[in-house]
Design a protein that fits this description.
Elements lengths: L2 H10 L2 H12 L9 E4 L5 E4 L6 E2 L5 H13 L3 E8 L1 H4 L2 H14 L5 E3 L13 E5 L4 E4 L14 E5 L6 E5 L8 E5 L7 E5 L10 E14 L6 H7 L4 H8 L11 E16 L9 E2 L3 E4 L2 E4 L7 E6 L6 E3 L1 E5 L4 E8 L5 H5 L2 H6 L7 E5 L2 H5 L4 H19 L4 E4 L5 E2 L3 E2 L2 H16 L2 E3 L1 H4 L6 H6 L12 H25 L2
Parallel strand pairs: 4-20, 4-21, 21-22, 22-25
Antiparallel strand pairs: 1-2, 3-25, 5-19, 6-9, 7-8, 8-18, 9-17, 10-16, 10-19, 11-14, 11-17, 12-13, 15-16, 23-24
Length: 494
């Protein structure tokens, strides 16, 4: 990691953090002091766990640490981590760092959840490339009230065009896959999964924009002149002449003239390729499950195609899960630009499809968008509680780790106090509601550190999002915090 990004870590982390990580690298014994009685932010007294690298109530993560220890020792299983969030997560910069660190340490069991973000013209897809011959419609949890088709991705890809092909191409061969699971609303068989042995090339649909002037139709009245009309409509005589192919200045009473206006008309023209679907060979080894239909025993594929199930007239895709035949960690990333807890909470299908990822740990990074709507901390906490209750009602008591929103500025210059308020209320409730909290706000230095974050080019120009280096730094901090607490758990078992 570059020196400039390392400065933040050394100023933000305590010497205990650095020491624990050195000991982790050397696999030495780590000893920790016992928890103590503290005063909570609401003025009450209660027992909260000590902070190990700003991770609170790590006890709630014990079931995950147990499984991680078994994987570490026996190398006999896959562990699924699901990281859910907003625009901080959708770009997969922070989460990619965590994924790489986990898989380097414990094994690469596959890429996990992917969604064709590029087909709806938004960011994502760090390791896969999607292309299609048609233009797709989409739904997003931040902008829909009818959310029946919006599942685990927070987005849904939609069309009623039966002549489509979606190409999935893995850019990083380390993520070639032996298993593929297709997620659709209510597990409907809407797509075939196919190979292409005929050399059929998929030419992506192209949308071009054409800009033209809006024309006003004017009926010439007695006594009107070309000059007068040009003044009335704020144009020129020449433009009126050209629009109506007039050779002179004479206009006839009752004639209908086209008058160029100031308003522009933007029309989108789509160029779509018709594809011969006979060139694709559908896979037949489909296994239906309650949470998606799966194709196993694939021969290390790095390219696959989705084609229509011809018995369907409407097609909706919620996402695809990619795995390989190895044991290790799968790190699933789910992010929606602009999302709040309340946006996820209104989508029943999102919670129903969580079981498709079989998570052993769920990490949730939401809150930034709530701060910019100035949502009171108590209302934020209510939405957090609804979210957690929904997860547990659909998937049981899976360990949950919440991260506080990172520091940001209102209007690029004013401190955002809601980030700290949200962090405090999450920490205060962590023991009672049995979840862990990683205080990203504090570990980055809080509002006081904004000048340092700016100077080190760790935060973007909007002072809300972070640079790639900033997200990589955050990913490293979260991984280090989890490992520190994992080693504490591991040493307690000896």
């Amino acid at each position: 990691m570059k020196k400039k990004t390392s400065v933040l870590r050394f100023t933000a982390l305590s010497m205990a953090l650095i020491t624990s990580m050195l000991l982790y690298a050397k696999m030495k014994h780590i000893s920790f002091p016992p928890p103590g009685e503290v005063t909570l932010s609401d003025g009450t007294e209660g027992e909260v766990p000590l902070v190990y690298e700003h991770l609170y109530n790590a006890k709630a993560l014990t079931p995950f640490f147990e499984k991680l220890k078994a994987l570490d020792t026996l190398k006999d299983r896959k562990l699924n981590i699901v990281h859910i969030g907003d625009s901080h997560i959708q770009g997969d910069a922070m989460t990619s760092q965590i994924r790489q660190r986990f898989q380097t340490e414990f094994g690469n069991a596959g890429l996990g959840f992917v969604f064709p973000y590029s087909l709806i013209h938004t960011n994502g897809e760090r390791y896969v490339r999607f292309s299609s011959n048609i233009n797709w419609d989409s739904q997003k949890n931040t902008s829909r009230t009818d959310t029946d088709a919006i599942g685990i991705a927070g987005y849904s890809l939609l069309t009623n065009n039966k002549n489509f092909v979606i190409e999935l191409n893995v850019k990083n061969k380390d993520y070639s896959f032996n298993s593929l699971r297709v997620l659709t609303p209510h597990n409907k068989h809407l797509f075939e999964v196919a190979t292409n042995k005929m050399g059929v090339a998929i030419k992506p649909a192209v949308v071009s924009s054409h800009i033209s002037q809006k024309m006003i139709l004017h009926k010439v009245q007695k006594g009107e002149t070309l000059y007068g009309l040009s003044r009335k409509y704020k144009t020129t005589e020449k433009k009126i002449q050209e629009a109506n192919r007039l050779k002179g200045n004479t206009i006839k009473e009752n004639a209908i003239l086209k008058i160029p206006s100031q308003e522009k008309i933007v029309s989108n023209i789509s160029t779509e390729q018709s594809v011969n679907l006979n060139g694709f060979e559908a896979l037949t080894n489909k296994a239906d499950t309650p949470y998606g239909y799966t194709y196993n025993n694939l021969e290390g594929f790095d390219k696959i195609y989705l084609t229509p199930n011809t018995e369907s007239s409407y097609f909706a895709l919620n996402g695809i899960v990619l795995e390989n035949n190895q044991n290790g960690v799968i790190y699933h990333t789910i992010g929606v630009n602009g999302a709040r807890f309340s946006d996820y909470n209104k989508c029943n299908l999102f919670f129903e499809q969580i079981q498709a990822l079989q998570p052993d740990l769920i990490i949730v990074s939401l809150g930034t968008n709530e701060t910019f709507s100035r949502l009171p901390a108590e209302d934020y906490d209510k939405q957090v509680e609804i979210f957690i209750q929904q997860i547990r009602s659909h998937y049981g008591d899976c360990p949950i780790l919440l991260t506080s929103p990172p520091p940001s500025l209102f209007k690029k210059k004013l401190p955002n106090p809601y980030c700290e308020q949200y962090a405090n209320i999450l920490i205060d409730n962590s023991v009672k509601k049995n979840y862990g909290v990683f205080d990203l706000y504090k570990i980055l230095g809080g509002s006081e550190a904004m000048s340092s974050l700016i100077a080190q080019n760790l935060i973007a120009h909007d002072r809300v999002h972070y640079t790639h280096a900033g997200y990589v730094e955050q990913g490293g901090m979260l991984f280090d915090a989890l490992m520190s607490n994992y080693l504490k758990y591991k040493n307690q078992q000896k």
